[in-house]
Each structure stands twice: as structure tokens, then as C-alpha cells.
Amino acid sequence: MKIIGTGSSLPKKVVTNDMLSEFLDTSDEWIVPRTGIHSRHVISDEEIWELGADAARKALEMAGKKPEDIDYFICSNVVTEYMTPGLSCVISSMIGLSCPCIDINCACPGFIFALDIAETHFKAGAVKNVLIVCAEEPTRMTSWQDRSTCVLFGDGAGAVVLTEGCNIKGIKLHSEPDPTKIWQKRRLMPTPYITKEEEDVPLQMKGREVFRFAVQASTTQVEALLGEIGMDKSEVSYYMVHQANLRIINAIKQYLGEPDEKFPTNIADHGNSSSASCTILLDECNRKGMFKEGDVLVFSAFGAGLLSGAAVVEW
Ligand code: UT7
Question: Are residues 138 and 180 located together in one domain of the fold?
Fold first, then answer.
């Protein structure tokens, strides 16, 4: 398969670090050196499905495809107000898709897990065109009284349209299941039979452990994947790394011994938008005209699960 269209959409509200320090015991001086984040786009009166639909329309337009050309739609999302139907159905109804659609919840590496599902369908000869939308509102998962989590996140949606081709050179997925490292819980509807205590818990994260996992999983997977497909790092044009923390990206860069210019970032004014992060970065770089045919893009993302994934894509 081959990427032929990208799109993204961001909430209009921009929240700077100084705005956070008006109601939170934090500061620009703490946030910037530890994360690289200066500001983030935060959902206010938009709906996440509006951003997802907007990103999808832009990707379809760039790809020169109509909704009826799409054979399969995968939506990556962690939380939305809709418990059912899936966000994929809500976005489908907005953009006029009638093909099968599924939601996946693989947290930050969701885009790479979605690529893997799409590739399986292409290899089976079951599809000609696939749409992926990663639409996330992690700012609705955190407590805005918890300075250790809410400063890190931003919202948004990114989309890609894929068609037939041989441009996915390899995908590697990894799982270290442990729901105590990053988690959030919601209370479900009560019934006469539920006697156990249930509560709404905002996002909890063991930051340092997740940091270590991110750097280790990313570097190990990228090196292993390049080795498996017989590609040297010198052939890689860009590393499209999940925008969770600039220090994580710098540690990966240092470990791989690759230069700054191969690591585009947008974390400074986006924060961590979970699975949308890689797709928003991809669209922004693409629309700047950074990629030329034959360029090799290495995607790497990691997060709750713990899950991580890497993919090597030829442009
Ligand atoms: O998408 C994937 C999921 N998440 C990640 O990839 C995140 C990975 N982890 C990280 O990025 C980093 O661990 C953080 C940015 C979350 C935290 O950085 P850290 O250097 O590991 O800081 P820390 O959690 O060890 O906290 C150090 C201190 C603590 O104070 P004490 O206990 O030493 O007195 C915190 O209470 O900094 C304090 N602190 C803050 N202070 C001001 C934590 N958050 C803040 C804040 N402002 N926003």
C-alpha cells in the first residue's frame, strides 16, 4: 500500500504554559525544559468527530478520492463521548462513507496499529483504498488540577488515504501489557446487581517509567525493523516519532546517532495528541513539501498498554 493523501485538523483554542500557570502550580520554566511544550490546541466548543471529519475530507481531497472510493475505514481513538456507535461510524456519517469501519484503541501508537490492519487487508486483495483517521482529545482524560499530566496533552485529528502499492517496507508491533503505567477509568451505568465500588479516575501515569519504556521500545524496534528489511540508517530520510516529550525524541535521536534534521517535530505548539500526533506531524510536513518520491519515513510511537510500534514507509 501507499500513502496518497494526508489531512489534519486542530481545535482553535491555543493554551500557553503561562495560561496554565494562572490556575495551576506550574510554570513555563518547568514545562519547557522537561517536555519541549510551549502551547497546545485544546478542544473547547468543537466536537472531536468534527475534527476527524475535517482531517478526513482534506486527506480525501489530496488523494483525489471520493467517499465511495474508500473500501475500509479505520479510526484510532482512545476516548470520545460516544460509547456507541464507534467514532468511525460517527465520522462516516459526516463524510458520506458507507464502507465497513472499525475503531481501534491502541493509544499513542494507534496510527501504526491501523497501518498494520490496513496492510493486512491490502495484502489479502480485499481493498483498493483505505482511510485512517486518528482523532484524539486527551485533554478530556486528565484532571486539570493534576499538573503532572494535564500540561502534557493537546487535541487534534490527522488522516491518511492509502491505495494499492508496495511502499510499506515493514511494520513492527510490540506489547508489554501493564495497565498500571498509564490508565484512566470511567464509571458505567449502575445496575441493581452492581455492589462493588466504582469511580471515575482521571488519567494516571508513571511518567518516568513510561519515559524509559518509550526510549527503549522505540530504539529497539526501529533498529530491529531496519535490520529485518536490510535497510541502513543512512537510507532513512525522516524519523516521524510520536510527539510525547522532546526529551524522549532527543534521547531516541542520540541513541540512533542520527542528525537533528531527520527528526521533524511539532510538540512545541501541539503537545502530545496521542495517536493523532504522528498523523498531524505527517500532514504538516507533507503540506510544507518536505517529502519527495522515494524518501524513507520511519514512524515510531509508544504509549498506554504498554504498546509501541514502528513502520518504514517509502514516500
Ligand atoms: O504518550 C506517551 C505517554 N506519556 C509519555 O510519554 C510521558 C513520559 N514521561 C515524561 O514525559 C516525564 O516523565 C514527565 C514530563 C511526565 C515528567 O518529567 P520528570 O522529569 O520525570 O518529572 P517528575 O515526574 O519526576 O517530577 C519532578 C518534580 C516533582 O516534584 P517533587 O516530587 O520532586 O517535589 C513533581 O511534583 O516536578 C513536579 N512536577 C511539576 N512541577 C511543576 C510535575 N509536574 C509539574 C508541573 N509543573 N507541570
Answer: no
Tens digit of each residue's pLDDT (9 = 90 or more) over 265-305: 999 999 999 999 999 999 999 999 999 999 999 999 999 99
Question: pLDDT value at position 16?
Answer: 98
Q: Is 272 labeled as catalytic in the residue annotation?
A: yes
Residues 259 and 143 in one domain: no
Longest dimension (CA), the chain: 62
Q: Are residues 180 and 156 in the same domain?
A: no
In contact, 29 and 104? CB cutoff 8 Å: no
Q: What's the CATH code of the domain at 156? A: 3.40.47.10
Statement to judge: residues 304 and 183 lie in one domain: yes
Q: Examine the domain organization and report whether 33 and 116 are in the same domain.
A: yes
Nearest CA to ligand 1 atom 3: 303
CA of 163 to the centre of ligand 1 (A): 41
Query: Is there a catalytic annotation at residue 105?
Result: no
Show the domain range for 206: 170-314
pLDDT tens digits along 48-69: 999 999 999 999 999 999 999 9
The alpha carbon torsion through 18, 270, 152, 202 (nearest 10 deg) reads: 110
Domains of the chain: total: 2
Contact by Cβ (8 Å): 183, 204:
yes
Q: What count of residues does the chain have?
A: 315
Is 129 known to be catalytic?
no
Pocket, ligand 1, Cβ cutoff 6 A: 26, 30-31, 34-35, 108, 147-148, 151, 182, 205, 207-208, 210-211, 214, 244-245, 248, 272, 303
Other Cβ atoms less than 10 A from the Cβ of 260: the count is: 9
Ligand 1 centre and the CA of 139: distance in Å? Answer: 17
